[in-house]
Design brief:
Blueprint (H helix, E strand, L loop, with lengths): L17 E7 L2 H11 L4 E8 L2 H6 L3 E3 L7 H10 L4 E4 L2 H6 L1 H7 L4 E2 L3 H8 L1 H11 L6 E4 L2 H9 L7 E5 L8 E4 L2 H13 L10 E5 L4 E9 L4 E3 L4 E2 L2 E3 L3 E4 L4 E4 L6 H21 L6 E10 L2 E8 L7 H4 L7 H10 L13 E8 L14 E2 L9 E5 L2 E4 L2 E4 L3 E9 L2 H12 L2 E2 L11 H4 L2
Parallel strand pairs: 1-2, 1-4, 2-3, 4-5
Antiparallel strand pairs: 6-9, 7-8, 7-9, 10-11, 10-16, 12-15, 13-14, 15-18, 16-17, 18-23, 19-24, 20-23, 21-22
Helix pairs in contact: 6-7, 8-9
Bound molecules: adenosine monophosphate (AMP) and glycine.
């Protein structure tokens, strides 16, 4: 992996030799490790459980064989190994209350407490919260049983398409877009009767379908102050032209031109500030990363969803575009000094293309041998982030649906896209699949 594409050396802070623990195993966590390890303040980066890519990083970075949901073991590891700061990458530990646990043990941690993480872990909570605080989002109804939901679906007043969502965490797969009554009934049967998402589908939100283009905005916040990353756009569907099933995300780019400075101002005024203010007023100030998933229609932003973490694959484009020292910002977010630190961006574009296992997001076979071309390391402004990879006896093999997220920077979006696809050609394994149109929407604006 190449060094951070930077044209300036960051000032070294007075506090050095920090040990950081990162929790999660995806390309987002590989990118977090990479960004944290750039900092001269950091002595050691531990990632639990990490992946094949973080295992191969070497230097300051080391994998720790603990699951992201093994909260007590993670806390013990942090205490025993002098971890100064923990960064929670994925949502499950947040839903389980990892931040509450670490804070009770006086271990600094970046993330929201369990009650605040409900912005992601309960769609019913987040919709009701937005309604209480006048935050723009799609109109909705909440259902707790199949009978009532079916009566709503069958009512002549119900307008299609409709969006039907399991309230709980479903790894991005709990959303059904119903074009008519039949689709809607099938979704309700799957959620309430077949219980395909278990308890996560005990409550169901049915909401109005929003038109427009999606974008993701990320804030790092200490509960009051916040700093914004460059806006990004994800590609959630498996197929080119946004067709086929929803996935965790097949690629992303930033900055997304759909989020003009006027749109960003509206997002701050109508969404970010009222969200932080509302959470504080309700008694659970929101700290850590706030992910606002938006639909932008004629310049007007609406919240599609909140997440209590950074996005994957968006992190793989927004972190490489951060010019300032990431570790300094993370530390400031737990110290409550976010307004005192630099938070500057490169004036470049970034694109990331996800390489997935054939069959994803449905069934796929792991354990395929991966070949990386020798000249990969020499490619300029290129970052190969691993997701579902494992290192078995020195051989890199596939170990998940999304296998890599390959990022390139460029002076323009078009250059970053071309470079990212240049990296894709250097990586091969049996059944490898990627979309061929990542970033294309950003070029036509
Ligand atoms: P969510 O998990 O809530 O982000 O939903 C997953 C995806 O479903 C989103 O990224 C959108 O592409 C789509 N979606 C969710 N809610 C809506 C909505 N109200 N209108 C249109 N599309 C939506
Ligand atoms: N990129 C979608 C997510 O992280 O939820």
């Amino acid at each position: 992996m190449s060094d951070k594409p930077d044209d300036e050396i960051q000032p070294v802070s007075t506090v050095n030799a920090m040990n950081v623990l990162i929790i999660g195993s995806g390309a987002r966590e590989h990118a977090l490790c990479w960004a944290v390890a750039q900092s001269e303040r950091v002595q050691g980066v531990f990632v639990a459980p990490g992946n094949g890519g973080t295992a191969l990083m070497g230097g300051k970075v080391r994998n720790v064989p603990l699951k992201a949901t093994a909260l007590d073991d993670l806390l013990r590891f942090a205490v025993d190994n002098g971890i100064d700061l923990t960064v929670v990458g994925s949502e499950s530990p947040l839903e389980l209350g990892i931040v509450d646990l670490f804070r009770d043990a006086q271990k600094p941690v970046v993330g929201p407490v369990q009650a605040a993480a409900r912005l992601e872990s309960s769609k019913v909570f987040s919709k009701e919260f937005m309604q209480r605080h006048g935050i723009p989002t799609a109109g909705y109804h909440v259902f707790r049983d199949a009978h009532t939901a079916k009566s709503f679906i069958g009512s002549p007043e119900t307008i299609y398409p409709l969006v039907i969502k399991a309230s709980g965490l479903c790894a991005g797969k709990g959303v059904f877009i119903a074009s008519g009554k039949e689709d809607a009934l099938m979704a309700i049967r799957e959620l309430f009767e077949d219980r395909i998402f278990g308890d996560a589908g005990n409550e169901v939100v049915i909401e109005e379908f929003l038109q427009g283009q999606e974008a993701s905005v990320f804030a790092l916040t200490d509960g009051v102050r916040y700093r914004l990353f460059l806006p990004a756009q994800d590609h959630k569907r498996i197929g080119d032209g946004d067709t086929g099933k929803n996935t965790g995300g097949m690629g992303a780019y930033a900055p997304a031109p759909i989020v003009t400075s006027e749109v960003m101002q509206r997002v701050e005024e109508r969404i970010i500030r009222p969200t932080l203010k509302g959470m504080a007023e309700e008694g659970y100030p929101y700290t850590g990363f706030l992910y606002v998933g938006l639909m932008i229609d004629g310049g007007e932003p609406f919240v599609v969803e909140y997440n209590a973490r950074l996005g994957d694959p968006e992190t793989q484009v927004v972190l490489p575009l951060l010019k300032s020292d990431f570790m300094t910002a993370l530390q400031a977010s737990v110290d409550g000094t976010l307004d005192e630190v630099p938070f500057e961006m490169h004036r470049k574009s970034a694109a990331t293309v996800v390489i997935a296992s054939g069959g994803y997001p449905d069934h796929y076979e792991p354990g395929k041998r991966i070949t990386l071309s020798d000249d990969l390391a020499e490619m300029e402004d290129c970052l190969v982030f691993h997701a579902g990879t494992a290192c078995e006896g020195g051989q890199l093999v596939t170990a998940g649906g999304r296998v890599f997220s390959v990022t390139a920077l460029g002076e323009t979006l078009s250059e970053s896209i071309d470079r990212a696809y240049g990296i894709v050609e250097k990586i091969s394994f049996d059944g490898a699949y990627h979309r061929t149109d990542i970033g294309a929407k950003g070029l036509v604006l």
